[in-house]
Amino acid sequence: MFIIASDQVQNSQLLGIAVGVGIKETGAISQFMSNMKDKMGGNDIGYERVMQNTIKRAINNMIKDAESDGVDGIINVQINNNMIVKNKSNVMVMATAYGTEVKKNVQNCEKSP
């Protein structure tokens, strides 16, 4: 399985769209720690970690979607993320990864030495 941001791969057939979603909800403790970071300054490592893990989960789910369709790779990969504030103590982090599924056209590919 190959995953690339490019929108073209030679000798391949475009098939469909692979999609993956990752969602993580933070609780009151995470929100409290984030507020403390805001007041003292500095990076909010907790939220950064939550966002990174959510994006990774979305990418992994996109790969599972593509594998279930029997494709060789995903091109033109895009990632979107959002933070949704539910109330003062809960924030939902959501990431979506999607791309075009491709199947290598073996008949037209040059053989490697």
| Helix content class | 25-40%
CATH superfamily name?
Hypothetical protein apc22750. Chain B
- CA-CA gap between termini: 21 Å
CATH architecture: 2-Layer Sandwich
Strand content: 35-45%
SSE succession: EEHHEE
The description of the largest β-sheet is: 4 strands, mixed
Count the E strands: 4
Instruction: Assign the structural class, choosing from mainly alpha, mainly beta, alpha/beta, alpha+beta, or little secondary structure.
Output: alpha+beta
Mean pLDDT: 78
What is the compact description of this entry?
By secondary structure, this protein is an alpha+beta fold.
Features:
single chain; alpha+beta; 2 helices; Translation Initiation Factor IF3; elongated; 113 residues; four-stranded mixed beta sheet; disordered C terminus
Please give a structural write-up.
- It is a single chain.
- The chain has helices spanning 28-40, 45-68; strands at 2-3, 12-26, 73-87, 90-104.
- It is elongated, with a radius of gyration of 19 Å.
- Residues 108-113 have low confidence and may be disordered.
- It is of the alpha+beta class and 113 residues long.
- The chain has a four-stranded mixed sheet with strand order 1-3-4-2.
- Strand 3 (73-87) and strand 4 (90-104) form a beta hairpin.
SSE layout and pairing:
Layout: E1 2-3, E2 12-26, H1 28-40, H2 45-68, E3 73-87, E4 90-104
Parallel strand pairs: 1-3
Antiparallel strand pairs: 2-4, 3-4
